[in-house]
Write a structure and sequence with these properties.
hpI Integrase, Chain A, three-stranded antiparallel sheet
């Protein structure tokens, strides 16, 4: 009773509400949604484990944190919440940690027990699409709702723009570049890095396809209709199936495809690709570069030929062999 009078944000639910009040305007719509999902998982866990609708943040300890992490991956499941893989679970724990850190900074709790969690991400390979798969996705006939999702995906294939940045693009981001052609110019939300790249013809065609959407609009009107990341990835599975593409297709695959199939495999230098992706370190871009086996094959062809074991027909060599 004393604590409830002293702090109105003393429970998990009210703490997440406080976080949205203080940080919500700085976060994207999709990030705010993800914090809401994390809260749903937390409240579902305390209902199952502790038989309460909410939970006092001051008594959250290491055992609570570790059990909640296990719950995310399937432990104690008695609800319809989706089971997370370890990387997905860690994203929820990261959001939980940030909210609890806010409580610690406000001196509502003595320590942040989520910071003590010892777990590491699993390395995952994100596939890229080849040119044939991109062509199939580009040309398949689709209903309007799937067509919009496909257009956003293909635009990302030819620009490398991330989902977060895609949702913030407006007509102001289309500018005349130094070569007098149209360029895409924006600042990345994640890194704050300025990105500038010339628009390839397929990307321009998609922008022109939405002329009616832009007509009479202001310069700060979104470049494309908004589609949530969850719906985007759900619909992309349907698009891939209709296009006969068996590879895994998510929005991030488009960015990976730009980095590999569209640029690196066409001998665009790694440093240039890194700038177009808005990476702060070239080592981040090298994650994409490692899959470009065809480029390695071309680069090593001459050297391979030089060191190939060809028969030396010189007299001295022949005598030595005899």
């Amino acid at each position: 009773m004393f604590q409830s009078e002293d702090n109105e944000y003393s429970t998990i639910k009210t703490l997440f509400e406080y976080h949205m009040i203080m940080e919500g305007k700085k976060l994207s719509q999709s990030t705010c949604y993800q914090y809401g999902v994390t809260l749903k998982y937390l409240l579902s866990y305390v209902r199952i484990k502790h038989k309460v609708a909410d939970y006092d943040i001051s008594i959250i300890d290491a055992a609570f944190v570790n059990e909640f992490f296990a719950y995310l991956q399937g432990y104690l499941r008695q609800d319809n919440m989706k089971r997370c893989d370890i990387n997905g679970a860690l994203k929820h724990m990261e959001r939980f940690k940030k909210v609890m850190e806010m409580a610690f900074n406000n001196e509502w709790i003595n320590r942040n027990p989520v910071k003590a969690l010892k777990a590491h991400k699993e390395k995952t390979d994100i596939n890229e699409l080849d040119e044939e798969a991109v062509k199939r996705l580009s040309t398949v006939i689709l209903p309007p709702n799937l067509g919009i999702v496909r257009d956003l995906f293909i635009f990302a294939v030819y620009t490398g723009v991330s989902y977060e940045d895609m949702t913030r693009l407006t007509q102001k981001n289309i500018v005349i570049g130094i070569d007098k052609s149209l360029w895409l110019h924006y600042k990345r939300v994640k890194t704050g890095v300025r990105v500038s790249l010339p628009l390839l013809e397929p990307a321009l065609e998609i922008i022109n396809r939405y002329d009616t959407y832009h007509k009479g609009g202001k310069k700060n009107q979104p470049l494309f209709p908004y589609v949530s990341n969850q719906i985007m990835n759900r619909y992309l599975k349907k698009v891939a199936k209709l296009a006969g593409v068996e590879d895994r297709v998510t929005y991030h695959v488009a960015r990976h495809t730009f980095a590999t199939t569209i640029t690196l495999q066409h001998e665009i230098p790694l440093e240039t690709v890194s700038k177009m992706l808005g990476h702060t370190k070239i080592t981040t871009t090298q994650v994409y570069a490692r899959v470009v086996d065809t480029k390695v094959m071309r680069d090593m062809a001459t050297l391979k030929d030089m060191y190939s074991h060809k028969e030396d027909k010189s007299p001295n060599n022949k005598a030595a062999n005899e």
